């Protein structure tokens, strides 16, 4: 069976996902697109796909079995609620939503529906290096994980569009999610330190250092720098009781010339996580074909939202902000 998919939001990542859904993956076809910028939607619509005037029209269409949401974060809540009301499986780019209240609303709707429909775009969980790192920690041969260092560097971010809140409520969500997944536990508290500001970002609060205290007492230290110029640099290292487990440097051709010996660094997330995005969609397509979802859930999106909210509070108070979660509904135990 071929899954017929509608894509909402046809900007940077929407276009990249349309490319993989049409040119890379099998068992799927893009039958619809929609964007508040109708000209953009029309210009990137694959052959045969209908351009819908609104996201709601796309979600309600009989020619769409599953929905991919790639619009801006604040639009996700209404679009997710409409997908759940229509009983359609939905892949939603991170952040799930932008407030705790919205996350609880989406969770309540999915729980009332009775089974999972939502997969959140935390693609690191599908990356082969992160999967191998988790396997080492889970095997327990290095003892308990005590500390995790997560480095998240972007070459640059869109000037004017990327604001000082975004390292904490847009970028940090990936580190929050991967920390919870790798360490297998929830975040209990969040602190933020703001070092000397990079002159490259104007008034932007960049870089930031975030400390996540996990429920076991393990501490995660996250560096977020969004204007490092040299490339997209993602690192992770877990310190356990009797050893260290770290992500490898990505293999790249070694170039030797008059400038020295060097290896290229990915330009951005599209390049670094290209296989991970492919794999997250393979798994989404398989589950959506069965009318459900697997992988990162609404619960995981909710958890990351709480960490982002706590980080935004912590940067104001300068202290440690607690994270307290509601009881986990049974549909999110796998
Ligand atoms: P973008 O600005 O390039 O594209 C967003 C598009 O959504 C725009 O074309 C905009 O017109 C459209 N849009 C906004 N509101 C809409 C609405 N209500 N209905 C329909 N269309 C709407 O942004 P982007 O970089 O492609 O990011 C989109 C989403 O993907 C964001 O949530 C972002 O956080 C996420 N993202 C995730 C990753 C990742 O690594 N997983 C990487 C980049 C972006
Ligand atoms: C972007 O939206 C992403 O999700 C990227 O993976 C992240 O590195 C970047 O900081 C975000 O703005």
UniProtKB/TrEMBL annotation:
Keywords: NAD, Oxidoreductase
Role summary: Involved in the oxidation of myo-inositol (MI) to 2-keto-myo-inositol (2KMI or 2-inosose).
Cited InterPro entries: Gfo-Idh-MocA_inositol_DH, Gfo/Idh/MocA-like_OxRdtase_N, GFO_IDH_MocA-like_dom, MI/DCI_dehydrogenase, NAD(P)-bd_dom_sf
SUPFAM superfamilies: Glyceraldehyde-3-phosphate dehydrogenase-like, C-terminal domain, NAD(P)-binding Rossmann-fold domains
Enzyme Commission number(s) from the entry: 1.1.1.18
Annotated source species: Aquimixticola soesokkakensis
Domain Gfo/Idh/MocA-like oxidoreductase N-terminal residues, every copy: 3-122
Protein name: Inositol 2-dehydrogenase
Family to which the UniProt record says this protein belongs: Belongs to the Gfo/Idh/MocA family.
Domain GFO/IDH/MocA-like oxidoreductase positions: 130-244
Annotated gene: iolG_2
Quaternary structure, from the entry: Homotetramer.
